[in-house]
Specification:
The chain is an alpha+beta fold. 37% of the residues lie in helices and 15% in strands. Strand 1, helix 2 and strand 2 form a beta-alpha-beta unit. Helix 8 packs across helix 9 and helix 16 packs antiparallel against helix 17.
């Protein structure tokens, strides 16, 4: 299942017509061996799969030119892939004798591919790749049973988008820094026909952040088995905060942020806050041009002012198939894509969050992406199970949230949802 966040900024919108920078024909040329400097002794063609709309042509062209210039004899064949059907295509590629050399995958897909076999274990390369500085929420999904199969590439996460006019109208002069202050500010904003916040009842990624803030999780691994954790005291406290915040607006309790589209709701001009990726502001302005320049951004507040709230970190990882005929050179490609030069270039043009905490400053000149980068430092991932996609497909957490928001008893539906998650995660494929 595709489980990523898109940052639909102006730069990314220009990439809508993204096409392959290299040939889409199978890799050709004689296999070469790499010397100690990472260059080829004979001409080598490396195939790299990149997902459609991940990057603009300009970013990929700059990377290709730079890598080929510093790696004599190496040609990069960057092939653009479609998300539809990509799971089966990657699985087949990993099992083939003609596998690509490097593949971009959604960060929560790594567990599924690692379970199918054929993904190179890169644990020994963590230090060389600057792994101590990786964003936790982006790095964790690539680590399976203590082994690093996926290398963090780029991230995106939710922030609070707010209407500056409505903040001024309510006398709110600065964004809140803590969750309790957030509730107080939102209550001030939720008056006179204005909604303090629009938060759909089934926005489970936002709920997950509140649960992580409390020290809980959606599911935990005990030995070799998984256990749903929505009924723990920590998770219940996260749900309680969600319930208090959600009540300060008119978001439906029985649907998610797509029904109705929350962007359209905010665009009407009477909603003070929305939780979304920064790119949502572009769509809001398109729906209501009068809001252009009237939106601000801040990280989801945490329990204390010194730490932003936890967020789900979506994005992509890079994997190397075991069947790659040029493993050493494939690693050099991954190292370059995950390295500072490309990460800074990518962040500035695409408005993504770099894979390293220390590179967050590359976004400092943009309020929206700076808020996203600040939140990403407290990023988390969904449970690292190959079966997690089945939990999402069954809408277990969404259905639980509606019951918790509409019923008098939260404990019983939490326990039932936890049991369902336990069963799904422990089902053998």
């Amino acid at each position: 299942m595709r489980n990523r966040l898109f940052v639909v900024t102006g730069a990314l919108a220009l990439a809508a017509g993204l096409t392959a920078c290299g040939s889409t024909s199978p890799s050709t040329g004689s296999p070469g061996s790499a010397n100690s400097a990472g260059t080829a002794a004979a001409p080598v063609r490396l195939t790299v799969w990149v997902m459609r709309d991940s990057f603009s042509d300009a970013v990929l062209d700059r990377f290709t030119s730079d890598f080929e210039r510093t790696s004599p004899g190496v040609t990069l064949d960057i092939q653009i892939q479609e998300w539809d059907g990509i799971g089966q295509k990657v699985t087949s590629g990993l099992a083939s004798n003609d596998a690509p050399d490097v593949i971009e995958v959604g960060n929560t897909q790594v567990a599924e591919y690692a379970a199918s076999g054929g993904v190179k274990d890169l644990t020994g390369k963590i230090a060389d790749l600057g792994g101590s500085d990786w964003l936790p929420g982006l790095a964790e999904p690539g680590k399976i049973d203590g082994h690093q199969y996926g290398i963090p590439w780029y991230a995106a996460n939710r922030v609070v988008i707010y209407n500056k006019d409505l903040f001024a109208k309510a006398g709110v002069t600065a964004p809140p820094k803590t969750r309790e202050e957030w509730l107080e500010v939102t209550a001030k904003l939720d008056k006179g026909g204005d909604q303090g916040i629009y938060l759909a009842g089934q926005n489970w990624y936002t709920l997950a952040g509140f649960i992580w803030d409390e020290g809980g999780d959606l599911a935990v691994k005990e030995g070799d088995a998984w256990k749903g954790a929505l009924d723990t005291p920590q998770a219940m406290a996260g749900m309680n905060f969600y319930k208090r915040l959600q009540a300060l607006g008119e978001g439906p309790k029985d649907s998610d942020e797509a029904k109705p589209p929350q962007i359209d709701v905010f665009a009407k001009g009477d909603v003070a806050q929305l939780i979304a990726t920064p790119g949502a502001a572009v769509a809001i302005e398109k729906a209501n041009p009068e809001l252009a320049g009237k939106m601000g951004f801040f990280p989801i507040p945490g329990k204390t002012p010194d730490r932003p709230g936890a967020v789900f970190t979506g994005g992509s990882d890079l994997i190397i198939p075991e069947a790659s005929q040029h493993g050493d050179l494939a690693y050099q490609v991954v190292k370059a894509l995950a390295g500072e030069r490309f990460q800074v270039d990518m962040a500035k043009e695409m408005k993504y969050v770099p894979n390293r905490v220390s590179l967050g400053g590359a976004l400092a000149g943009d309020e929206a992406t700076a808020a996203m980068a600040a939140g990403a430092a407290n990023g988390h991932a969904t449970p690292n199970s190959a079966n997690w996609a089945a939990v999402e497909a069954k809408n277990v957490i969404k259905e639980y949230m509606t019951k918790a928001l509409t019923g008098a008893d939260t404990a019983a539906p939490a326990a039932a949802a936890s049991q369902t998650i336990t069963t799904i995660l422990n089902t053998k494929s």
